[in-house]
Structure formats: C-alpha cells, structure tokens
C-alpha cells in the first residue's frame, strides 16, 4: 500500500504546478479583462465599437479554432454567423424580445438547432471535402436569404437598439454597455472553450488530427468528437452573429457569403490553435488593420491584409498564440 501511495506521489506533485499555472493564467486573464473594461469607459467611441466588433467576430473564429484542433477548416462559418444574426433580428422584430443577452444566447441556440441535422453527415468528411461541403451550405443559406422577402431579401433587416435588464442601450452609455456585454460573453465562452480543450474529449481532437485510425482503435468515436466540435462551432458562430448584429443594428445576406467565412478563417489561421486568447487578439488585429488600411489605402486594403497574413505565416507559422504558449490547449 505504501509503495502504491509513494508511486502516486510524483504524479500528484507534477499535477500541482499545472494547477497553479492554470490559476495564474486565470488571474492574469481576469486582471487584463478588468483593465480592458475600465479603459473602454474612457476610450473614444470608434475604438469601443471596434473592440465590440472584434470580440463578436472573435467568437465566430473561436468555433473555427475548435474545428482546426481536429484538422478541419470550415468555410461555412458565415452560415451560423448569419443564422445567429437573423435569429436575433426576427425575435426582436416579430416577437418583441429586446434583451441583448437573451437575443445573443437565442442566436447561438438557433444556429445549433439548424446545424444539428448536418453534423452527423459532415463528421464523416475530412480535408477539402469538409471545407467544400460547409462552403456549399453557407452559400445555400445566402441564396435563401437573398430571395426571402420575409427577412428583407438582399437589403437585410434593420433593428433598433436592444435593452439590457430592462434598460434601453442608447447613446454612448448604451454603446459602452453593449461593449461590456460582448466582452463578458467572449470571456465566459473563451474560458469554457479553454476548459473543454483541456478535457479528455477536447484532447481527443488533437489525437484525431495526428492519427485518426489509432484513436478509433483506442475506442474513441471520431465522428462523435467531430460532430460535437461542429455544434460548438455553430453555437459560437450564432452568438457572435447575434452580438455583431446588435452592435451594427443591421443584418444582411452577406453575413453568409463565402468572403465573410474567409475572414473568420483568416483570423483562425492568424491565431493558431494553441491559445484561445490568440483568437480575440487576432480578431482585434484584423479589425485594426482593416480599418486603417481602408482609411489610408481604400483601394488596396485587401492587399495589406494579405501581406500581413503572409508575414505572420512566414515568421509565426504556428500563429500569434505561439508567442506566449507552447501548450496544445
């Protein structure tokens, strides 16, 4: 008995630094989040709006990161992005549901509901086949939205300012409250995804990327893991789409267009799969580069983005997240 206990002692001791490291990372994350929220109170309106958009779009790319851990890249994330945005808009306009938090969660739930029938099918495919099928689904949704008069057709839908806990989010204070809400949801979902990535089921995705056949021999269901990751990506995309729609006050079919999905893939590649925080950093970088490039290089801002991505791939092939972490999760 003593031998078995002594044999367990090294594993307990080795686990302790891991827990302390996780706790330290959590504390640092919360401190940085608090600083960001306080800084946003006195930041100019354009910067607060940019950070709000970056957090909402980062959630959508967080879903792609979950798929990338299993070796998959989705070019159809714009589909769930649009579903979340249109779902929130329809609830706002048709049902009179104006609470921003409820609309964001409802957008994520609706995206999962509509993506669920396709999850078992898509879980069978890998590589270019998975990417092509998700792209096809996204373009089908785009075509339906363009031709559907009930949701505004090609003009999309416009909604008024939402409320939060009974208070209408209007003016600069409303913009700041929406920024805090979006950042808080991004923090909560980011921590939840980080916990999932570090779990046994989340780590199976990394094993699938390296050797899918061996994972099957060990008794894990690869299709189940891939389907779950697809649904998690759908929820992230739906919540992000709803939050972006609430910030813009407008949603349109281009949310589901392939170029929009390409931007989310751009952010996911820029971030890498090692760090959840890197997704939001990369999303912020994209918004900053796009805003300033479109202002000073209005005809060639896409070229600036492409050169920036090439530089990151050349000097940081594992993404921005490799700057501060070597962990897989």
Quickly list its features.
13 helices, single chain, two-stranded antiparallel sheet, two-stranded antiparallel ribbon, disordered N terminus
Describe this structure in words.
The chain is an all-alpha fold. The protein has 2 domains: 14-43; 47-258, no CATH class. 74% of the residues lie in helices and 2% in strands. The protein contains 13 helices and 4 strands. The chain has a two-stranded antiparallel ribbon. A hairpin with a 2-residue loop joins β2 and β3 (167-168). The chain is globular, with a radius of gyration of 21 Å. Residues 1-15 have low confidence and may be disordered.
Write the layout of secondary structure elements.
Blueprint: H1 2-42, H2 45-68, H3 77-94, H4 100-115, H5 119-122, H6 127-147, E1 157-158, E2 163-164, E3 167-168, H7 171-198, H8 200-210, H9 212-217, H10 222-248, E4 250-251, H11 258-271, H12 277-296, H13 301-315
Antiparallel strand pairs: 1-4, 2-3
Summarize the structure.
With 329 residues, the protein is an all-alpha fold.
Across the major sheet, the strand order is 1-4
Q: Please tally the helical runs, counting DSSP H or I stretches of 4 or more residues.
A: 13
Order of helices and strands: HHHHHHEEEHHHHEHHH
What is the strand content? under 5%
Q: Characterize the largest beta sheet: strand count, sense, and whether it forms a barrel.
A: 2 strands, antiparallel
Gyration radius, rounded? 21 Å
Distance between the termini: 35 Å
User: How much helix is in the residues?
Assistant: over 70%
The dominant shape is globular
